[in-house]
Amino acid sequence: MNPLPRRASLISHHIDTFDVSLTRSFTGGAERYASSVVAATTGPIDEPRSPSYEVRWIDGDPENPRNWSLLYKTIVVASMGYSATVITLASTCYSVTIPGLEDELGITKIVGLLGITTYLLGMAAGSLLLAPVSEMYGRRPVYFVSVGLFTIMTLPVALAHNIETILVFRFLSAFFGSAMVSNSPGSVSDVVSDHHRPMAFGFWAIGPLNGPVLGSILGGFIYQYLGWRWTNWIIMIMGGLSFVLLAFVKETYTPILLRKRAQKERADTNDPKWWSAYDNNLPFLSFCRINISRPIVMILTEPICIFWDSYVAVSYGILYLCFVSYPIAFQTNRGWSPGIGGLSYLGIGCGTLITIFMEPVLRCWIRSHPKDPETGVVPPEATVKPITVGAICLAVGQIWFAWTSTPNVHWVVPILAGIPFGAGNAALFIYSSNYLAHSYGQYAASALAGNTVVRSILGAVLPLAGPSMYATLGLNWGGFLLGMAETICILIPFVFLYYGHRIRRASPLIQQMQQERDARLGATRAFEDNPKFSAS
């Protein structure tokens, strides 16, 4: 007897049980919260309202961000990408200046590394607040305030004469700048269709994904020839340019646009019947509480967020450990200067670009995925395909670097290890962000903000453990240990590729969003069938 059908039946049984356990384990009480989350954005349905008075997008509506011209969409995505690049670049531009801080301020290396920690913690804290605020008031005003304050908060760092000033204002600059990293993918999602989202994310990610690499290269040469203070002056100049570019970007968030359009119609016609699906009557404080707490609750209760946030956090933490291990491998052990030492990250940068420029090929691969019979379109799980390959590349690159990073191996070999490592990181970041955005729709900014929080915390903590870990285990065994952690994580994308649709069905927020859509459709039909409302 062929054992495969029996085995498949057992696997299916375990997956079905897994669905139930996911719902019970992660969503106890989350359904009630999900209901309030949706109501905070869409508003409660008190009674059927006339569909003839509903403000919504129609085909070809020029105010719909997805109907903007290709040129303007490109400007929007490029502006978002550049601004996010400035923020990520600032995180590592500092790392290469730590020896200068040690000499001038009389601090230890561990204290110097706290500048990276406080910066990433600032990004985590800022993402919790600023992403939901953008869903309350729109993305554009948040971007202006965030980039402006990020630039201003960099000034005290450039003028600092003690480490305390540097740590405090790096935290504050990252806090405000975090909106560009956590929210800009939401803006990208706002202006492109599902079909073109992977390509748009890839274009947007060219800068942010290479930001840490560019920061190390740029910072190395600036520090070597101009000193550590000039790294901050350059960042301020780049932040000012970002502020100017954002002046050309219009609001992209559909709930805000339709809510304002409905308000305008009511004011212009003096008719209160005009409404949008995103009107709400919640008290201001309740609205704030729900929107600001949403990313935290999603991190703790949404199975999709729990798994992807954890995986991306591990990858991100190991990436920031590279800014501890690479200086040891190339500057300490090989005697390279800070500027030349920064070039050792080119392997990671090249790997990132390979993934981005392969987007047309990867898009064809994604489109070849079987379509969802219910919707007739390719499901979100199709975007996980590139991650399955990227996850393997990520682990291979890390283990490759671990065993070739010592001086007895030619320097080009560990640099080449950065190519699969960077390619895997890029695939994980781009396509996991796409999966989250596709799964959560209008709450993409909150889902991505939660992702930023978790990965920033791990990225903040791991570099502090780096010096002692490498001093105890060495570059070989320390790097190999990290490679094993990434090898274990390879299971996550494969689970989502084959069973992601079931995991999505276990999501309380996605369930509630679907119920809300069904309820509104039912309300519209009730109006059409009810003579009382039809006559009004």
TrEMBL record:
**Domain Major facilitator superfamily (MFS) profile: residue ranges:** 69-502
Record flagged with keyword Transmembrane helix: yes
* GO MF annotation, one: transmembrane transporter activity
Topology of the protein relative to the lipid bilayer: Multi-pass membrane protein
Q: Which UniProt keywords apply?
A: Membrane, Transmembrane, Transmembrane helix
- Where exactly are the transmembrane stretches of this chain? 75-98, 110-130, 142-161, 167-188, 200-224, 230-249, 306-330, 342-362, 383-403, 409-431, 477-499
Q: Which GO terms describe its biological process?
A: export across plasma membrane; xenobiotic transport
Does the record's keyword annotation contain Transmembrane helix? yes
Places the protein is found: Membrane
InterPro entries in the cross-refs: MFS, MFS_dom, MFS_trans_sf, Sugar_transporter_CS
Q: What do the Gene Ontology cellular component annotations say?
A: plasma membrane
This one is known as: Major facilitator superfamily (MFS) profile domain-containing protein
